[in-house]
Amino acid sequence: MTSEDIHQKLQAQFGDRVRELNSDAIDPYVMVEAAAIHDVSDYLRHDAELQFDLLMCLSGMDYGPDKTLGVVYNLASMSHRHKLTIKVEVPREGGSVPTVSDIWRTAEWHEREAYDMCGMQFENHPDHRRILLPDDWEGFPLRKDYEVQEFYHGIRVPYTEDPPGVGMEIYRTQDQD
C-alpha cells in the first residue's frame, strides 16, 4: 500500500481527525489530531490490510520557542512491507498525547525519553517518569529554549560551547598535571 492509500483509508475511518498527507517529504507523513493518536494507532495495528506491527521509533520534537511540540511515530508492517510516519502536535505548556504503549510495548521507553528530553506528557502511561536524567533535573534538554544549568548538586555541568576537556577537571588527578 502506498502512503496515499493508507491516508485515504485513515480519512475514511477517522474523518478530519486525520489531517493532511505530506507525500513530498523524504518519509511521507500524515498529521493526526493528538487526541486521536491512540484510536488511529490501534486501527493501524489491527486492521488486516495495514497491520503496522512495528513501532520503529517514537521521537519528541520541538519546532521552536514560540511554536508547538510534536511527537513523530515511525511505523512499519512486517507482513505487508510498508511504512508510514505519523505526526502529532501539542502545545508547549499543558498539552498531552494519549500513550500508545498498550499498542506497541516499545513505546513505553520511547515515550519516557520524549518526556525526559522534550517534556511531552503521555496520558495513561504506565510509568511516566524520567528515563535518562535524574528525577530532580531541571528542564528538558532538547527544547530549543532550554538553558543548561551551570551546576547540578555542586558539580559543574559542561556546556556545549566549552572546548573539549573543560568542565572535566574533576576527573583529573595530580599525577596527570
UniProtKB/TrEMBL annotation:
Enzyme class: translocase
Membrane-topology annotation of the record: Peripheral membrane protein
GO cellular component, one term: plasma membrane
Keyword Membrane assigned: yes
Family matches, as SUPFAM superfamilies: Nqo5-like
Domain of life of the source: Bacteria
Subcellular location: Cell membrane
EC code(s) of this entry: 7.1.1.-
Alphabetical list of InterPro entries matching this protein: NADH_DH_suC, NADH_quin_OxRdtase_su_C/D-like, NADH_UbQ_OxRdtase_30kDa_su
Domain NADH:ubiquinone oxidoreductase 30kDa subunit: 30-151
UniProt keyword annotation of Phosphoprotein present: no
Primary location: membrane
Reaction equation(s) it catalyzes: a quinone + NADH + 5 H(+)(in) = a quinol + NAD(+) + 4 H(+)(out)
Keywords: Cell membrane, Membrane, NAD, Quinone, Translocase, Transport, Ubiquinone
Molecular function GO terms recorded: NADH dehydrogenase (quinone) (non-electrogenic) activity; NADH dehydrogenase (ubiquinone) activity; quinone binding
Family: Belongs to the complex I 30 kDa subunit family.
Subunit (UniProt): NDH-1 is composed of 14 different subunits. Subunits NuoB, C, D, E, F, and G constitute the peripheral sector of the complex.
Functional summary from the UniProt entry: NDH-1 shuttles electrons from NADH, via FMN and iron-sulfur (Fe-S) centers, to quinones in the respiratory chain. The immediate electron acceptor for the enzyme in this species is believed to be ubiquinone. Couples the redox reaction to proton translocation (for every two electrons transferred, four hydrogen ions are translocated across the cytoplasmic membrane), and thus conserves the redox energy in a proton gradient.
Protein name: NADH-quinone oxidoreductase subunit C
Organism of origin: Entotheonella factor
